[in-house]
Input
Amino acid sequence: MSLIKEKDYGTPKIKSEKLVDLVIDGKKVTVPEGTSVMRAARQIDTDIPSLCATDSIKEYGSCRLCLVEVDGIRGTPASCTTPVSEGMSVKTTSERLTRIRRGIMELYISDHPDEDSPLHDMARLVGLEENRYGTKGHNHLKTIIDDSNPYFSFDSAKCILCARCVRACEEVQGTFALTIDGRGFDSKIAAGTDQSFLASDCVSCGACVQACPTDSLFEKRVAEIGQPERSVLTTCAYCGVGCGFKAETKGEEVVRMMPWKDGMANHGHSCVKGRFAWDYAIHNDRILSPMIRDKITDPWKKVDWDEAIDFSADRLMTIQKKYGRKSIGGITSSRCTNEEVFVVQKLIRGAFQNNNVDTCARVCHSPTGYGLRETLGTSAGTQTFDSVMDTDVMMVIGANPPDAHPVFASQMKKRLRDGAKLIVIDPRKTGLVKSPHIKADYHLPLRPGTNVAMINAIAHVVISEGLMDQDYIDERCDIDAFSDWHNFILDPINSPKEAEKHTGVPAEDICAAARLYASGGNSAIYYGLGVTEHSQGSTMVIGMANLAMATGNIGKAGVGVNPLRGQNNVQGSCDMGSFPNELPGYRPISDDVARAEFEKEWSVKLDPEPGLRIPNMFDAAVDGTYKAMYIQGEDVAQSDPNTHHVEAAMKALDCLIVQDLFLNETARFAHVFLPGTSFLEKNGTFTNAERRISRVRKVMEPITGMNEWEVTCRLGRAMGYDMSYSNASEIMDEIARLTPTFAGVSFDKLDERGSIQWPCNEAAPEGTPIMHIDSFVRGKGNFIVTEYVPTTERTNRKFPLILTTGRILSQYNVGAQTRRTKNNIWHDKDILDIHPHDAENRGISDGDMVRIQSRMGETVLEAKLTENMQPGIVYTTFHMPESGANIITTDNSDWATACPEYKVTAVEVRSTNRKSNWQEEFDGFSESTRHISK
Amino acid sequence: MDDFLQATNIVHRFKKMPGGLLECLHAIQDFYGYVPKETINIMANGFNISRAEVHGVISYYHDFKTLPLGRNVVRVCQAEACQSMGSRELTSRIVDLLELDLGETNEEYTLDAAYCFGNCALSPNVEINGKLHPRVSPDKFEKLIKAGAL
Output
């Protein structure tokens, strides 16, 4: 594919029912009322020259190049700021206009003599031949370049003050980090309070770089490598937003990742991770050759693919012979493509002959799948992202979109600035609670672990004050179930007064938030792992679905219950049958009809018994009944709770096969390492949080020499089970044949449409942006009673604080990718956030090393004093392996899905001056188990 | 220093007022004599806008000072009428005398340009500590200083 250059219409698209006819240079054009003359002209390929206009931001009218003549109007109005009107007749070229444009360009060029500047292209376009002013006068040629950002530089000398960067930062990203400093000839673009970009509030999303028409803001990699020549459309491999990107290359080299304007999840926007932090994919730490070893204390031996596969198959089969068919299993990855996940679960069910397959979604969004299926009928979010633009009230629970889902956060903020109301339910004062031009109407800072008490109290207010949508309930929901729930929720134990005791949030705030949610128009719930990673994670998901159904907030634009998925393909990996009890498409393994279909297609007999979940696998390994695992793209030794237990399980295995980009923490315990491939080396699909299936396309050939799905298939064949595909597209065809919600999906259709939201089948050939429109997928909406049961993880005198964990913008999950990029400049270690009051009581100052001790273990981090925390609660991230955040987290988990309770751990924090024992051992063990023989 | 408690009070007075930031900046400058950089966060927080936006407004208006002023403030008119009556020469003498360029400050003096005091009939004009002095020649300026008019 050659370089894709997207058309810029100059001003944003206008939504209007009313259409207006006008004539531009003799050509008739019809556009919605309110459209600018510039956009109307560009729609019929009449490209009026301009510098300060771009269609991602509002018109500005500063460059004066886009002047036109309009019949009946005096002078030469700017086409970007002039809206069309019925019967208007516009001329975009004339001698007068040419003269004015040349005059303007001559002034620009007099301060920008550098022939490489894109301004000279514009000068040539308007026919400017000379610069009579010279460059001797007052000018801006001697300025200092701001190189502070690791990914782009800012050269003020090239700047024309069009403020596209300032406006993109405000309107597109919503950070407001840039401004124009000074006035008149002295004005310049400034970051923050005239600081460096790095020191300012800039979040490095790249919107300004993309908007700059003069290369003042310029990507360093382009400066190093040169302009790209070729684009490949693909999908970001970071969070569950699933942004569409153009991977731009020169020769064999990736130059940059540019957000794709037609990407339906991001509409041309990006964040620092997807846009800039992708070069982990070509990092030296990548392991490119398969490796094996007899014992984990041996050095790794590099072998060829055949030897690695045979070694693995041989060990797996020997173990099965000795310990039984069910003594082995595997874990699929939410980082991998649908096709890769599908073949791994097929390998386990078909070749391993059991159902010991689970996925990392177990530890994040498994309660979402369970809760939404039981109430609504589908294990997925109800809305498309764009639905937020029709939302009047957003209720954000246990999610921190500006850090974890930044591109969607920008869309949320846009809607909030336009007047939507906001309720945030979170123990911390997150970036959404208050940031420039955004302020939550209600922030309910509850104590971690009391979500269910909170949602019940909100529902109690809704029902007791008669704010429910009774018609909706009568028509669409199961009345008996509603009536049971109704009686339950009215019980005084669910009153806001009671909830206040558990949550610490004043009852009147709960009441006010409940009233706003129930009567503010279209209300939408957005939630993250702060909901699911609790002992009552599933209960809380059900509680939110109950509330949404009771108020009629499901089944149209602007409403819904929306999980914000952590990883790029959490939705997809769950859809693909990664759970031990479910075949692809969430069909129960115990269902004879479903199993028969798969048995026919796969020519194999399937075990009807569900297999082990991840925590059970660890327990069984420690017990000695589970002896081998195949783990693709997940680092359980870092990401899963109670690290001591996980490590014990890993050490007990006779064969651990790890397939990953890097020698991760889990690989320290592995006997076989199969090198994986990055998203840049893959063909396949990811499914994002809005059920959108998007193509991932190969930008370069696998550096390991082998497609990742092919590795899995070879392992299957080596174990005597025939799995063969000639490409990823054939795998998707098999998925479509076996999964009713995917029946209409194929690579061809995805290539044609860009992306498709499932269900996509005969009933919905175009896919389904919003679910449950006329009725719920399960038939009648099911209300389920959600009794609040406090977690057993309690504070006491010995462990008086609660630790909760989360993410930060610049790092991603276990950090395997982002730690290997320049993103470390923003965050190179995990830090413990603590309220100044708690710190003072313990004699802790900002920057002190502190020992965090729980009932499970202890670790040492640096402390940061911040009032974003409430007293009694401390917070850290888990991006760095040496932090050992999961040394302290407990074995507690969700009652329904075993999703770990990462968000609540009782701890004590004290000053210290040395690392914890585990950290010291980690340093040593880490070194000794990573040795590769030459 | 009062830890900028007063700034917080001032911001509180204006934060709900439409276009209140400008009024607030005036009040801050009246109170502190300039706009201390520590107050930028307080204003950004109070008005719920970014620090960059506050900075943009402060830097747009020359009359908002971000550093403490000298004990005496001298403003010399640079507009056309005064120029035609010799304000350029006057300015260069003042610059030499005070050892400051236009826009600069030391402990003793702040020297600034002004653009018309509306007193063109009596050009050139210099304002010293808020008091307008008409028909100022270089010698007269020197005398004003020596006479302790400052």
